[in-house]
Specification:
alpha+beta; OB fold (Dihydrolipoamide Acetyltransferase, E2P); de novo design (two linked rop proteins); single chain; 40% helix; five-stranded mixed beta barrel
């Protein structure tokens, strides 16, 4: 058995029995972990107020070789995420960000870049960043860091530089130039100049820098559709939180 302490983000909290909770959390050094916080549901628990969804905490846990669940011994709040979840849209967005990490972040392997992505996105949102822009930035980087969707600089079919127009092929989410896309007979998704610029800017600019010269609402909507299509190709499914968010916001 070993005892570990690290900064972490709470990704999910599930009730277990009458007094305990199962906590999924993300660390930079050890990736994604799942553990039991014993007594977390008790009235005077030491975990009271600490295990908030997407809260940044310092967590201490015990783990034993061969066991899937660790034992969460302590958690102290570093930065709450409650202001983000003060309204329905924020709650839905928070669940969407967290599910990305639950699906894509590795278990028991270092994930510093994913940790920094979530940290920077949440920090920007808590500081008042535009939610649609922050979500697109997060999606683009998530796909990029997991090796699914590189920055669109060169055609993945012919190797030529991509100019002002490109296509994403539905079969494997390859990015191809306008010429190769025009000659493709299967399903394809066109990317215009403004979306290409957003994809490229996101590779070199921070979320705050993007916010100083934000893309149009139409470009953000197109980028959202693009990321969703690429994600579905890779997962062969859709994130449940994305479907819930879409249905819920559409009904308002």
């Amino acid at each position: 058995m070993r005892v570990l302490t690290a900064a972490a983000f709470v990704l999910d909290v599930i009730n277990l029995h009458e007094r305990d909770r199962i906590v999924a959390f993300l660390t930079a050094e050890h990736g994604q972990k799942r553990g039991v916080a014993r007594g977390a549901r008790a009235k005077y628990s030491r975990f009271a107020g600490q295990l908030q969804p997407l809260a940044k905490v310092e967590v201490t846990w015990f783990e034993k070789e061969g066991r899937d669940l660790v034992r969460v011994n302590d958690a102290s709040l570093v930065r709450p995420a409650a202001p983000l979840q003060a309204d329905l849209e924020g709650i839905l967005l928070g669940a969407y960000l967290a599910e990305h990490m639950k699906v894509f972040a590795p278990e028991n392997e270092a994930a510093p870049r994913l940790f920094r992505l979530l940290d920077a996105t949440l920090e920007a949102l808590l500081a008042g960043a535009d939610r649609a822009l922050a979500a697109r930035y997060y999606e683009i980087w998530m796909l990029r860091l997991t090796g699914i969707f590189p920055a669109p600089r060169e055609c993945q079919a012919c190797g030529r530089a991509i100019a002002e127009r490109a296509f994403v092929l539905a079969r494997d989410a390859e990015i191809v130039c306008a010429e190769c896309g025009a000659g493709h007979h299967g399903e394809r998704f066109e990317i215009g100049a403004e979306v290409l610029e957003l994809l490229r800017r996101s590779a070199r600019e921070s979320l705050a820098e993007l916010g100083r010269r934000p893309p149009s609402g139409a470009a953000l909507a197109r980028a959202e559709e693009l990321c969703a299509r690429v994600r579905r190709v890779f997962l062969q499914d859709e994130l449940k939180s994305y479907e819930v968010m879409g249905r819920t916001l559409a009904s308002l």
